[in-house]
TrEMBL record:
It comes from Musca domestica (House fly). Keywords: Membrane, Metal-binding, Transmembrane, Transmembrane helix, Zinc, Zinc-finger. The keyword Transmembrane applies. It is found in: Membrane. Residues 218-268 form the RING-type domain. InterPro entries: RNF121/RNF175, Znf_RING, Znf_RING/FYVE/PHD. It is a multi-pass membrane protein. The keyword Transmembrane applies. This is E3 ubiquitin ligase Rnf121-like. GO terms for molecular function: ubiquitin protein ligase activity; zinc ion binding. The gene is 101901610. Gene3D superfamilies: Zinc/RING finger domain, C3HC4 (zinc finger). The chain crosses the membrane at residues 41-62, 74-91, 97-115, 136-160, 166-185, 297-316. It comes from the Eukaryota. GO terms for cellular component: endoplasmic reticulum membrane; Golgi membrane.
Length: 319
């Protein structure tokens, strides 16, 4: 049927059964236009509501973070932990639910050890190593996902007789899990590091040390050092800061990079990360930690903002 004939007049005195196929087509077409009449203005209102809500939400979040950082961090962490799980249950993302459950169970055990009183001597090292492992795992997943997507753009998927969308889906999946686990582990490690530092007894929240540090003892975990700072360790090396306090490699990395603590855990002197980790392969770890801060908004707050927008549209009768 010619497109122009769809706009020809329809005899509405006829019933549907009495209409010819051409008349039924014109009737359905005109009814569809009548149903969607005025939707252009409605769509503009929806876009305007979304734009205004995003601006207001951004301003509110920035002010909240400035004035009440602890409550902002706590709510953000809870939202990041719960919202993706709820979305996964709604859409049936079984893989994410399984990975989320494994990560949450192990992390919950680690958190319990970190906040237990009295704290065990082996707990700080265990906690730091776990979150450092999570940090490296998230970094590795992100790199692998990025390489897979770049390989897809270059056409390497055709060598293995695979469709481009399959490789892109796999690459995006690796990137998502890397960023999500990285952000979640980063925030939880900060809470654990602050709690453990106080429980171990090296300093109080006011910054006053409450325990004397013995020689050849790591200023983070309180255990004996394996090698001196000038020796090459088999498992890990020993680091000394400008304040002359020494640490296990895993402990100080966990404290400074994973736990976002750029001060000595004993005397709270400022730590120069560039000088302490001068290897160029280690510098991206610090930059990667800053990158994760930008992902937090997309995972925790963006879904909530869209949910609020949907609620406003529903209240105003906008479909």
């Amino acid at each position: 049927m010619d497109h122009r004939s769809l706009h020809a007049p329809v005899d509405f005195n006829k019933s549907i059964e009495e209409m010819t196929p051409e008349e039924k087509a014109r009737y359905d077409h005109q009814m569809m236009h009548e149903k969607h009449k005025g939707h252009e203005a409605m769509h503009s209102e929806i876009v305007l509501i979304l734009f205004v809500t995003l601006i207001i939400a951004q301003i509110a979040l920035v002010q909240w973070k400035k004035k009440h950082y602890k409550s902002y961090s706590a709510v953000t962490l809870l939202a990041m932990w719960v919202i993706p799980l709820g979305i996964s249950f709604f859409y049936g993302f079984i893989r994410f639910i399984i990975i989320w459950s494994i990560f949450s169970i192990i992390t919950a055990v680690v958190i319990r050890k970190a906040i237990s009183k009295p704290i065990e001597g082996s707990t700080p090292r265990l906690v730091y190593k776990w979150f450092y492992f999570i940090y490296k795992l998230s970094y590795g997943l992100g790199i692998v996902g990025y390489l897979i997507m770049m390989a897809t753009f270059l056409g390497f998927n055709f060598i293995f007789n695979q469709a481009p969308h399959i490789w892109m889906d796999v690459g995006l999946m690796f990137v998502f899990y890397g960023l999500y686990i990285g952000v979640l582990g980063r925030d939880i490690s900060e809470i654990c590091s602050e709690r453990m530092a106080s429980l171990v007894g090296y300093y109080t929240p006011q910054g006053i040390p409450t325990r004397h540090l013995e020689e050849n003892v790591c200023a983070v975990c309180g255990n004996q050092l394996l090698v001196s700072e000038k020796e090459e360790g088999i498992i890990e090396n020993t680091y000394k800061l400008s304040c002359n306090h020494v640490f296990h490699e895993f402990c100080i990395r966990g404290w400074c990079i994973v736990g976002k603590k750029q001060t000595c855990p004993y005397c709270k002197e400022k730590v120069d990360l560039k000088k302490m980790f001068c290897n160029p392969w280690e510098r991206p770890h610090v930059l990667y930690g800053r990158l994760l801060d930008w992902i937090r908004f997309l995972v925790a707050w963006q879904p909530l903002i869209f949910f609020i927008v949907q609620g406003i549209n529903y209240a105003l009768g906008l479909e």
